[in-house]
Amino acid sequence: MTKTVGWGLIGASNVAREWIIDAIRAQPDNEIVTVLSSDNDRAANYAAENNIPHHCTQLEALLSDDRIDAVYISTTNELHKQQALAAAAAGKHILCEKPLALSLNDARDMIDACRRAGVIMATNHHLRNAATHHEIRRMLRDNVIGKPLFIRVFHANYLPPHLQGWRVNNAGGGVILDSTIHDIDTLRFLLDAEPVSVTAMTQSALFTAGDQEDGVMAIVRFDNGAIAQIHGAYSVKVAPGGIEIYSTDKAIVARNVMSQRAIGQVFLRDAEGEHEIPIVHENLYHRALRAFNKALRKEGEPAATGEDGLRSLAVALAIKEAAQTGCQREVQYA
């Protein structure tokens, strides 16, 4: 593709405002044409505040615009499938927020529709774009610590008031589908391995009730034999975010790396102590949109494909089921 890539934002969301708009505009020859919201006043105000030339309330109006080549879907989770199917049918490339859908069948339908239409589909799993995680992946691939045996992931935080909406009171919300799903994708990326079984317990401490959860402790077994512990929560204000990966006699210790911001440190721990690994940080979303644009030019794949989104969803749903039943669950990818 040599012409300008025009984008339509399906959803006047906080994540688009805070991260994606800037990331799109950071790419050469990318521009945002239109934003869609079901509320016309919200759409108009959002467009004005973010210097977007057009706004609309009807999906058909956005998708019929020949100036739009790609869409970013960041509506509530139950809307993703219908909007993605419509975008694929209109020949628009798709970057979709996680979870792709609320069921594996729906996610597979989305992926299949994009393949039939010949459009790119990507999942916005931002954490795998962190320079820290790319360095950890390199270290594991280069066998710096030997065979990874145990992993601990710390990704607990406090949900700020402006995000205490659908994430806690919508059928597609809860910390597992909103946050832990990122941890799953990150571990798949780091380990080059697939989860095969899970067990979990959840908690409703502050924001949620019933089937919703605002905290989770999960254990995930991978097909390479490694076992990972994941702690995710909306309800704690001072928890550190990080990953520790242990082999028999060495470890990788990564601190402050479960963030949307380009921050964090990586250390190699051995018998001599901890040794910091140099990191050249980069905006995670800039990297993701650069990969997306390369995929449009047929120069590679998106940072996280639709299939990556489906596989992380499969594990997240298995974790929810394991917590609800109190039983270990095998991960079903189809």
From TrEMBL:
Residues 6-125 form the Gfo/Idh/MocA-like oxidoreductase N-terminal domain. Residues 134-252 form the GFO/IDH/MocA-like oxidoreductase domain. GO terms for molecular function: nucleotide binding. InterPro entries: Gfo/Idh/MocA-like_OxRdtase_N, Gfo/Idh/MocA_Oxidoreductases, GFO_IDH_MocA-like_dom, NAD(P)-bd_dom_sf. It comes from the Bacteria. Gene3D superfamilies: Dihydrodipicolinate Reductase, domain 2 (3.30.360.10), NAD(P)-binding Rossmann-like Domain (3.40.50.720). Pfam families: GFO_IDH_MocA, GFO_IDH_MocA_C3. This is Oxidoreductase domain protein. The lineage of its organism: Bacteria, Pseudomonadati, Pseudomonadota, Alphaproteobacteria, Hyphomicrobiales.
